[in-house]
Every structure is written in structure tokens, then in C-alpha cells.
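From the shared-data thread, chain only:
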Amino acid sequence: MIEAAKGTRDILPEEMGRWHFVEATVRDTFGRYGFREIRTPIFESTELFARGVGEATDIVAKEMYTFLDRKGRSLTLRPENTAPVVRAYIQHQRHRGTEVDRLYYIGPMFRYERPQKGRMRQFSQIGVEIFGSDHPAIDAETLEMMMTFLDLLGVHPVDLSLNSVGDEECRPVYRDALVRYLTPRAAALCEDCRRRLQTNPMRCLDCKVPTDQEIMKGAPVIADHLCGACRDHFDRVRSYLDASGVAYRADPRLVRGLDYYRRTAFEVTQSGLGAQKAILGGGRYDGLVAALGGPPVPGFGFAIGQDRLILSLPSDASIPPDEPEIVVVALGGASVPPALMAARRLRRRGRRVVFDPLPEKSLKAQMRHANDRHARAVIIVGEEEIARGMLTLKRMADGTQETLRTEDLEARVEALDHD
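Structure, as C-alpha cells:
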């Protein structure tokens, strides 16, 4: 038997209601804030991620699915979607249109990691990207939208952690201070952090190895090294969040795993998801558009791990029904054409109707099948009904049934809504 590849999984029909619920809430909530959906290819030039994400990051160094096409060009399945959205923003010259461009996406990403709860090698992300303004109100309003979205899903309690990671002026000063602290302690660091010390020392702050975490407790914090502009930006973000009633925790050791972040960085966590408790994260990336060949346009965004978000939904979430309202049952081969017609008429009135042509099955067997589908009612078409030009409607909740004229079908089904 051939099975799904390691790190991937099938999402079966019984699970899809939760995915549809989340995605409908995305479109409704984000649309209220002026966001529009964008879809980018699932593979891009490898150079895009090397330049956009950073060659020293774990994603580029160890986790990408990269291959050569038939003409020898290096392509990569997208491990994240900010760089592709920025590429699309530049390629289609969207900076020539509206000053502030608000975009969101939903789709699969790919990273070669050790599969674990809520983290697979193929996973789905929901993300937003905003281009055109470096005002701290953009940061705060987007964070408020994000927390509203989680609340509408019933995902709580969650913790929003917030930090500033500086910019090109003050971050090098902090980087030097961090290197001076870590260098004499390098022998005690894990292998990854010894590598990060040479390439991206701020990533050491995010290490999950317990011994490294102890070392990081004594490390300098970037809050003590922020320039005046970064400090003012962070203070204003916090003041807007306070005014909006958005709860958060300032975490001076919070960093993000990608090189393009500037100033605001954040993540949302929830317990109960295993080692990977972060649901989402993001921040400001004011230099990324220019770094990928575009104009100096500021940017801000976040990405949500949809798989983990699904795991966080409460058991009583308002999942839209995907089971049929009506099951049509045909008894005998001659009943199939009128059964098809009955189903067609009800579907045209917006009803969810299933007709499984099983005329050789007994009425009892077909009623059991309808009960398994959690149908509200069953339309029975048999030889007796055909002869009289009638149909039988059975309500599954109480077992009552009535015989009705074919032309009264739609009206009697409508009446079910008021029973």
C-alpha cells in the first residue's frame, strides 16, 4: 500500500468543516479591515528566498525543498510567503497604485523539518502583508485585527508577546554587545547556536535548548540599545494597543527567525500544542521590498500556522454544517428518474441534498444510511408514490411522515425550517 509521504497528511471530509470555518472567518474579518486576497505560485526562484529570507536562517540553510527544472534553473517550494508576496508586489508595480496596499493569503508551504504535532512538512499558512506605511498605527491596528480574528474563532486564552528588534542603525550595536557576551560562552552552546553566533547571533535568543536558555538569561537585551526613533516607534505602538484594549506582554528577548524584520516583532502562543506552542508571529520589514529590487517601501505582516490554529479551535466552535439536509431514497429502478428530479428541484432552492442511487436496497437499509448522514428529512420515492404522483416526506427528528403532492415538495421542505 502506498501511503502519504512523511510529514504530509490527508485532510478528510469529516475535518473540512473546521478548515472552512477558519477560512470564512479570515475572509470576513480581514475584509472588514480593507485586506484583499492574493495567491502566489507554490514554487519560486531559489534566489528569492536566499535574498529575502536570509542565507543564514535555518529555513534557507536546512529546511527548503529545492530542485532543478529541466533547464537547470534552481527552484524552491515556498517555505514562507512574505518574500513571494513582496516579489509579486514589485513585479506588478503595485507601489504605483494605492499608497497603502493590504493583502492576505491562504495556502500551503513546505519545510523539511521533523514532523510533530501541529507542524508538518507540508503545512498551511494564513498571512497578511501591508505595504506603504511605516506609521506605528499600522502595526497596532493589524495586531488588533489579528486578536479580533482569534477571538471570533474562540481561540483563547492566548498570549501576545511584543518586542522591538531595532533597525539598521541600532541593531548592529546590539549585535556587537550580544557577540561579546556569547563568545566566551560559545563552548557551552549547542551546535546550532555556535553556528548562529557567526552568522545570525540574535537567533541564539530563540534557542529552545534548556542549557542555552539559561545562558541567554544573562544576555544583554535590545531594549537597552534601541535608537531614539525605534524607541519612539515601539512606545507609540504600545500606546495604540493600550488605547484599543489589546492585552500584550513586552518581551525584551523575543526575536523572529527571519533576517528581514525591523522594529516591531511579535508572536502569539497558546499552551497545549506541544513543543511548538506558537500559533502565529510576524513584524515589520521596512527594508525587504528594497532588498528584493523594489522601491524603499515599508512593510508589516504576520503569518498563522493554520494546522496549529485548527488544533486550537474549541470543541464547540460554530462549524458550518457540511452534511446534507435532505436524503432522497429511491425504491426500485423506476423510482430513480423522479428521485433525481426531486433532488434537482430542492438543490435549485438552495438545499443540500444527497441522492445515492441504491434502488436495490431495502427501505430500512436506506433509512439507516440517511440517519448516518445526519439528514433532517428523507424524501421517499417508491412505486406506490409514482403511481399516485406523490412523494413521502419523513422527518428524522421525530419519525413522523406525510404524503405530499410532487408540486408541493419545495413548500413542504421550506416548512421544515419552522417546525
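The mean pLDDT is 88.
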